[in-house]
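FIELD: query
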Amino acid sequence: MDVFKPSTSDELHDVVGWALAESKKLRIQGQNSKSGLGRPIEADAIVDLSGQSGITLYEPGELILRAKAGTPLQEIDKTLTDAGQQLAFEPPRWGALYGSQDGGTLGGLVATNLSGARRVKAGALRDHLLGVEAVSGRNEAFKSGGRVMKNVSGYDLPKLMAGSYGTLGILTELTVKVMPAAEKVRTLMIAGASGRNAQALMTAAMQSPLEVSGAAHLPKVTVAMSALPEISGIDQGLTLLRLEGYATSIGARVKALQELVAQHGVELKPLSGHAGVTVLDDTTSLRLWREVSDVSFFAKSDFAIWRVSTAPTHLSSIVATVGADAWYCDWAGGLIWLAVAPEGAADADLVRQAVNRAGGHATLIRAPEAIRQKVSVFHPQNAVAATLTQNIKNAFDPQKILNCGRMYADV
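FIELD: result
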C-alpha cells in the first residue's frame, strides 16, 4: 500500500487531488496509536500526518495553544507542564490497548474526541477546541473558529470535526484552550463500598460544593489488574474521589470530603485490608488516575472492551445484565468499561439491549478485526440520525475517499 507523508499544505492537496482523480480511498493516521479503534477499512493508500508537526502558537497568559495535527501529545504535555499548565479534559492515551507505545497526536485526539477522568468537571475535548483547519474530501481547505470562543460564527465546525474520526476532513492545524495545572492532587481511596453504595457515594461527592474532579469505582477483579503494587494488593473494590487545586485549600476540602464519606457509613480509619479510607498523595494519585483514563487495567489482557456512556443510575443494572468478566466505571458511574471474551460477537446483542433499555450508547473499543467486521462498532443510529450523518458525509466528502467505513458502513 502506498504511504504519503505530506509535510506541507501543497503536498497534502496533491495527495487528495490524486485520490479524487484516481478514485482511491485514503486512510488518515498520525502515529497510528489507535489502529484497532473503529471498523476495519479498506484503503488504497495511507496519509501519514506525522510530518506535519510542531507547536505554532503558545500564549500561556491567554491560555491558548495552536499546533499542527501531527504534533505528538508528549511534546504538548512537556510544553504545558513546563509552564504549569495542562489540557483540562485530561486526554487519555489508549495506545497500549492496541499494542502501541506511542502517545498519539493532537489530530488523532481531536478526531476521536477522547476525554479522560476530569471530563465530569472540566467538560469534553470538544468544549476546549477553539479552532480547526482542515482539507475536505473535495480537496478544499477550510478553517473555523479562532483564538477565543466568541470568534466562532456560522456553523460550529470545530465541534463537528471533533469525533468525526477523519471521515469529514484531514485535520491540519488545531487551536485548543489550556488551563493552569493544580498545585496539589489528593485522592480519597475508599475500600468496602460496592454496587449501589459506591454509586450513591460518587453521586453525593459530585453534587457537593467540593469540586471533585474525578469519581471512579474499581471492583476487586479490576483492582488486581493495576500496575501499582500499593493498589493491586488490596483484596477489595475501591471507590476513588479526586480533589485538585491550590495547596491552601486542599486540606480543608479533603477533610470535608472525608466527613461526607463518613455520612455514607464508611469508617474513617486507615486502610489495612479492611473497609476504610486512605488519602493518596500527588504521585500515586497521578499514576492511578492515568490508569483509569487510559484503561490500562485491560491493556495486557485479551478481552474485547466496550465503552458504555449512560446515566449513572443505570450502572448496576447494566453491569448485572452483561455479566462482564471484568469492569469498572468512571465519571461517577456515567462511563462504564466492560471487558468480555473476544469471541463470537463479543456480547454485542447483550450490551446493546442493556444500553437501549437504559438509554445512552455503547462503543466496541477493542476487539479482533473479525468481530469488528460483523458487529457495529459504534452504537447503531436511528433512521433520522443515519440520514443526517450521510448528508454531512456527502457535503464534506462526496466521493467517500476519507477513512470511509471507519465509523459506519459507507460513511
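FIELD: remark
The CA atoms of residues 204 and 260 lie 8 Å apart.
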